[in-house]
Specification:
The structure holds two protein chains of two kinds. Chain A is an alpha+beta fold. Chain A has 17 helices and 15 strands. Chain B is flat and about 75 Å long. Chain B is built from 14 helices and no strands. Classes of the chains: A alpha+beta, B mainly alpha.
Chain lengths: 432, 294
């Protein structure tokens, strides 16, 4: 009796351990979506309203997990390599296409793009979602141009208002330096070249590239070219600029917090989502914590015509080998990004639609919003979407490591040039 | 006991062990073997290219990689500073408080143990605020007392960053050793202490000749646990500095994570893991040997 009881108990415990294993679903009653915080696509209440509407129409439930930019990549990488990934991922082409798609984890969804879709979707967004003519790993939903921001009250108090064009939201490199000098004379600290990690690195890249017209990659997106002498000139100019510090103790999010709280007078990590809800604090659009006005600006360039970094976001399907789930995920994408519901999905993102129309019907998402309408002035400055260059993930880390080394250097052109050369070389090693 | 009964009891024993054994094999043994095996491959995230067996290339590359060497150096600095300090400080505190009345003793135990039971993220957030370059309390106090004239970027300056990490590590490391030492010192045979005092031994002699040998097993445990914890310092680095500035706080554990999850070089990361395990094993063995001789 004791033996039987022992065996039964042991088997019960073993079965208990293995009970978590679940067979793959034969029909796709539920799919999982992992989303990065893309505007309010990181807000559970907003997303639930969208997914509930999808479930009501299709009968397919959507289980959503919310990622952060701090550790989202690690979570996704771990899940994908363990073959435990979600059915859908929401992010940009630099991850969905150039990383997970190129490495074989995503489903080719080129069949979702018919000729009308191709005509209606922004050409740059469309190109970024395709790995080649016949392979697409992302269906774009929304896009924006990243920019920088200035504390307008501080600018006025420093007598530097004349250096910005508040109508066009543009300025030249010379005007930018003059504004920083004026702000530094008044306040000391103006802004920080944040480089503790990759969060918000598009801001520092755009600042450096635009100041003297440098480039980050070649036009073919096959090599990293940030060892361009114009970038070295920009890095040195920023090093020498009073009021701007290379700060390896903060990242983009912390820079935004410092700007919002009035410590910085400029932020280089900005976009329309921040303008609508600075620091995600819910204290009013276009205002800092103490009520100062925030003026969004294009990055300064020699002629005032900046090349802004684009942000494109959409959906990709993870190849989990379950055809039913892939079909359900495709339905979800079409519902959110290629139907009359796209209006709501785009509004939830706080960015602009990646297409001008859906099935021939014009898609007018933001005409009722003054700030969004004003922000569209920056969209013509949208530059090359170079984030699809091979080896993008290691290149980003090389970029902020380089900024750290530049900041820790003696500021000589030779030292900065050496740091730039080393890390650009590392990035190119990853692009091979 | 008959052989048949012994066999049955043995089988029953193993069956009871089975659930834990499954966990141990699944989450310890198998990953360890996989780690060693993967370290010989050029393993990465690319599903389109099969992993290539590259013999000892990952291990050879490690010793030519300046970032790994820097990480190794930083790791050893952390170990060399924090292990002796943690042991000495916790022994000192435990010696001072273990004879106190129960209420006071519990208070001190709570004070020192609090950082251990507090989540590392919460601890890190508070320290990050204190170290903040712009509004941190350290800069505020030091500036207002005239010790410094300009804010110090504690975590952003390669000169200070590693020491800031070590300071946090110390505050979170001393709690458990203090509790263990308090318990060990309370268990020291008092008749031996009294006898030595009657024979004229002074406090130092009582400690060194009577107490120290009796708390040696606790010391050995503390040394090994602190060494392993120091070698595996990761969360603080990840949450505070990401290995920066300019690799000043890069540790082997963080570089393993960085290589595997940022550069997607799983084979290389695993090779580092094997090297780290070897170092920890060697140091633990030395500590065992020295303590046994003592």
């Amino acid at each position: 009796m004791k033996k039987v009881l022992s065996i039964a108990l042991a088997l019960l415990l073993v079965l208990g351990l293995t009970a978590v294993a679940k067979p793959a679903s034969a029909d796709a009653e539920e799919i999982t979506l992992w989303t990065y915080p893309i505007g309010n696509w990181g807000n559970e209440e907003t997303v639930k309203a969208l997914t509930d509407a999808f479930t009501a129409e299709t009968g397919i439930k959507v289980k959503v997990e919310y990622l952060t930019y701090a550790d989202g990549d690690d979570k996704v990488n771990t899940a994908l390599t363990a073959k435990k990934g979600p059915d859908l991922l929401m992010e940009g082409p630099e991850r969905l296409v150039s990383n997970w798609g190129a490495n074989g984890y995503m489903v080719n969804i080129a069949d979702l793009f018919d000729d009308q879709d191709k005509a209606e979707i922004n050409a740059a967004a469309l190109a970024a979602c395709f790995a080649d003519d016949a392979t697409a790993y992302e269906y774009p939903l929304c896009m924006t141009a990243h920019c920088m921001a200035v504390n307008l009250n501080a600018l006025k108090e420093a007598g530097a208002e004349q250096y910005v064009n508040a109508e066009t939201h543009t300025w030249t490199t010379e005007q930018f330096f003059a504004a920083v000098n004026a702000l530094a004379a008044k306040y000391g600290l103006v802004g920080g070249i944040y480089c503790s990690g990759q969060g918000g690195d598009q801001g520092t890249r755009a600042l450096v590239n635009n100041l003297y017209g440098g480039t980050f990659t070649n036009a073919e997106h096959t090599a990293y070219t940030w060892d361009d002498p114009k970038n070295i000139q920009a890095l040195k100019a920023l090093y020498d600029l009073e009021g701007i510090e290379y700060d390896p103790s903060i990242n983009g999010g912390e820079e935004i917090a410092n700007f919002y709280n009035g410590i910085f007078k400029m932020a280089f990590c900005w976009n329309i989502a921040q303008q609508l809800n600075p620091n995600s604090a819910g204290t009013g659009a276009g205002k800092t914590a103490n009520g100062d006005d925030i003026l969004f600006m294009a990055f300064p360039s020699e002629d005032g015509n900046a090349n802004l970094q684009g942000g494109i976001w959409g959906f990709g399907i993870v190849n989990n080998g379950d055809d039913a789930k892939i079909a359900a995920a495709k339905k979800f994408i079409q519902y959110m990004a290629d139907s009359e519901h796209t209006y709501d999905a785009v509004r939830a993102s706080n960015f602009f639609a990646a297409r001008t129309a859906v099935a021939g019907n014009a898609l007018d998402v933001w005409s009722d919003n003054e700030i969004m309408a004003e922000y569209t002035k920056l969209m013509p400055f949208l530059g090359d979407y170079y984030q699809v260059t091979k080896g993008w993930a290691p290149a980003r880390t090389a970029w902020w490591n380089m900024l750290q080394q530049v900041g820790a250097s003696d500021g000589s052109e030779a030292a900065i040039g050496s740091a730039v050369s080393t890390y650009c070389g590392q990035a190119n090693d990853g692009a091979k | 006991m008959s052989p048949e009964l012994r066999r049955r009891e043995t089988i029953a024993g193993y069956l009871f062990l089975l659930p834990s054994l499954i966990f141990f094999i699944g989450f310890v043994v198998v990953p360890m073997v996989m780690c060693v095996v993967t370290s010989f491959f050029d393993a990465n995230m690319d599903l389109n290219t099969p992993d290539k067996f590259i013999w000892f290339n990952n291990y050879i590359e490690l010793w030519k990689d300046p970032v790994f060497l820097k990480a190794l150096k930083n790791t050893f600095i952390i170990v060399v500073v924090s292990v002796p300090f943690t042991c000495i400080f916790s022994l000192w505190v435990a010696s001072a408080i273990y004879k106190m009345r129960e209420g006071l003793l519990s208070f001190f135990r709570i004070v020192f143990y609090l950082p251990v039971v507090t989540g590392s993220v919460a601890v890190t957030v508070v320290w990050k605020w204190m170290y903040n370059n712009y509004y941190g309390i350290f800069n505020y106090v030091l500036k207002n007392t005239g010790i410094i004239s300009k804010n110090i970027n504690w975590l952003g300056n390669p000169q200070y960053a590693l020491w800031c990490i070590i300071l946090i590590l110390l505050t979170t490391s001393v709690g458990q050793p203090i509790v263990l030492y308090v318990s060990a010192l309370s268990n020291v045979d008092n008749s031996l202490v009294e006898a030595s005092e009657v024979d004229g031994a002074n406090n130092l002699q009582v400690f060194w000749r009577i107490k120290w040998p009796q708390i040696m097993p606790t010391t050995l445990y503390i040394l090994i646990i602190t060494t392993i914890n120091s070698f595996q310092c990761f969360a603080l680095i990840q949450l505070l500095t990401s290995g920066g500035p300019n690799y000043a706080t890069e540790t082997v554990m963080y570089y393993i994570y960085y290589s595997a999850f940022k550069l997607y070089r799983f084979g290389y990361g695993n090779a580092m893991g094997v090297i780290l395990a070897i170092f920890i094993g060697i140091l633990s063995a030395i500590q065992f040997r020295l303590a046994r001789e003592k």
